[in-house]
Amino acid sequence: MEQIGWGLGASLTLASLPAMARERAGVMDNKKLNIALCGLGRYANVLKGGLAASQSCRLAGIVTGTPTKAAQWQSEFRIPDKNSYTYQNFDQIVSNPDIDLVYITLPNGLHKEFTLRAAKAGKHVIVEKPMAFTEKDCQEMIDACRKAGVQLAVGYRLHYDPHHIELKRLGQHKVFGQVRLIEASLGYRLAGIPPDDWHLKKAIAGGGPLMNLGVYCVQSSRYVLGEEPVAVTAQFGPVTMPDLFKEVEENITWQLYFPSGAICTSSCTSNCNVDRFYASADEGYFELQPALSYGPFKGRTSQAAFNFPVVNQQAAQLDDIARHILANKPLPAHISGEEGRKDMRVIEGIYQAATSGQKVDLTS
Amino acid sequence: MEQIGWGLGASLTLASLPAMARERAGVMDNKKLNIALCGLGRYANVLKGGLAASQSCRLAGIVTGTPTKAAQWQSEFRIPDKNSYTYQNFDQIVSNPDIDLVYITLPNGLHKEFTLRAAKAGKHVIVEKPMAFTEKDCQEMIDACRKAGVQLAVGYRLHYDPHHIELKRLGQHKVFGQVRLIEASLGYRLAGIPPDDWHLKKAIAGGGPLMNLGVYCVQSSRYVLGEEPVAVTAQFGPVTMPDLFKEVEENITWQLYFPSGAICTSSCTSNCNVDRFYASADEGYFELQPALSYGPFKGRTSQAAFNFPVVNQQAAQLDDIARHILANKPLPAHISGEEGRKDMRVIEGIYQAATSGQKVDLTS
């Protein structure tokens, strides 16, 4: 995977891992990484396929507030009662040697709390995006995991798709020259969603499509350019479904400005389906459509179509995380908590720009 | 051509044509429309192909300030001296029965002056886009042509490409349901252009890529939706070529808001090549790439690729204009001066929004 211009960030070095974690890693030689899924909603069901296809992970435990889900998952994955937790007794996981890592797929508003609790229980953590609602919370989560001697990853699955690895290569290696303009948009039409769905509730979702989907647009522009944006402008769009979008934005557009002069324009929306990435460079373009969803992706450059295998993003991500943790190696920077923090810094700036109507400086 | 939701605007009715024009139309039965090209720059050379392929037009005269160009064009098209004008003696065209129409391909800043002079000389007019620099000037040009009893068209070539006729049908007939999001961008990298090129001079170009290319993005969103935008936000991008872009913007992004709740986001840029149109509707999408240039275009919907013949946009446009004028019929609304006025109203709003940083109301 290309790392040009893409700093290692705050990833751990082997020496920095506390003794407890090193010992545990030693114990795990030649075994699978035992994962507890925390939150058995929609994305947990997506991860089922990833876990099934994974070579190095085993679903060893669950955390859920719904007894019927517990029964169903326990049966399907042969999970013993002692590895099935509720949100109330979750902290008892500290004394469960069957669990190495907690994968948090809860609604957004619970990401921080359960990351802190999992870290305190001495378990490695994968937290789904958005990592938290603020950069400050992300930092708190990073610090808590470091202090506890556990590794922290954000579920940045796109880094494991060959199409996105190619986007990075094309952009950062300037294969078509300097990238000048990126257009990256993602949205799903939510008409028909129950009005009490958590995605519509500010307290638990943290926001609308920007909070839920925005990291994919933000991050792909960052890793294709290999730069951090210095400023942002943004605009809330109109509300066309007022019965649903009372608390969070229905759609939002923004423009990121990068040090090289490159611009990335994006839409995130809940009023239509859109899933595309395009980059124009001095001597050509490259693009994906679908681009940012679970795939399968389809891409091309101005010269030729992409021809990459379809991969299970989740399985590839889980296996890479397992390989690193089982070998007692720090996780790759591109899925680190530090990455999540950088994305959340931009997301916060986008909301601030849309709310104020002013360009927001991201350098200070 | 679909006209659903696309008003007839201020197109002339037959009865409204003054007697002089009706008589002239009668005289022209069974003959070609005789055109004088005014301004022999880059686009005049593009039009050469259109004129050659046209069945109903004849290049009968020229207007140029460059004697060498006059000699070359006169020789190539066997144009007699009496049909070759300079900008100084152009008004004498009033007494030249060999010329029916003046096609103005001058730099932007001369569009208004020569439209008024051609109208005063009793000649029909095609003026290239942008029609003028302000909505007020467009109105003045419309009024002058109406008063003179001549027809006025803007060189809106895209209406004659089957790909765009299909875009209109898909959008206005809601073939994939209501369109919610349009992304339409157009740009050409101008690095290497001579610093004294007129496109870089505010007085003669009127602006940068928005003024030169913006109408294509604005208009395609208008005719796909069959609506007029009610508000706009816009942002100037950074200047990466400060030696060139001292007077006009190097790039600009904007967001148009339509009564239905649909949004159109666009970039116009002189720092990279981009040429794409995408529309997301409730049950699918449709897109072109290339989309807004001279073609050939390539398009698809979420269901299938487009399969339309390549047409010479300019020839099709010239022939349609000729057919209408020769039959003494008012020109189609979609290429009317009123269309140009509506586009310029939006372009003015975009500049105002980018300059002020405020959302601009387009309804008042």
From TrEMBL, chains A, B:
InterPro entries assigned: Gfo/Idh/MocA-like_OxRdtase_N, Gfo/Idh/MocA_oxidrdct_glycsds, GFO_IDH_MocA-like_dom, Glc-Fru_OxRdtase_bac, NAD(P)-bd_dom_sf
Keyword Nucleotide-binding listed: no
Gfo/Idh/MocA-like oxidoreductase N-terminal domain: residues covered: 33-156
Keyword Oxidoreductase: yes
Keywords: Oxidoreductase
Residue span(s) of domain GFO/IDH/MocA-like oxidoreductase: 166-276
GO function terms (MF aspect): nucleotide binding; oxidoreductase activity
Name this protein carries in UniProt: Predicted dehydrogenase
Source organism of this protein record: Spirosoma fluviale
Pfam family for this entry, one: GFO_IDH_MocA_C3
Gene3D superfamilies: Dihydrodipicolinate Reductase, domain 2 (3.30.360.10), NAD(P)-binding Rossmann-like Domain (3.40.50.720)
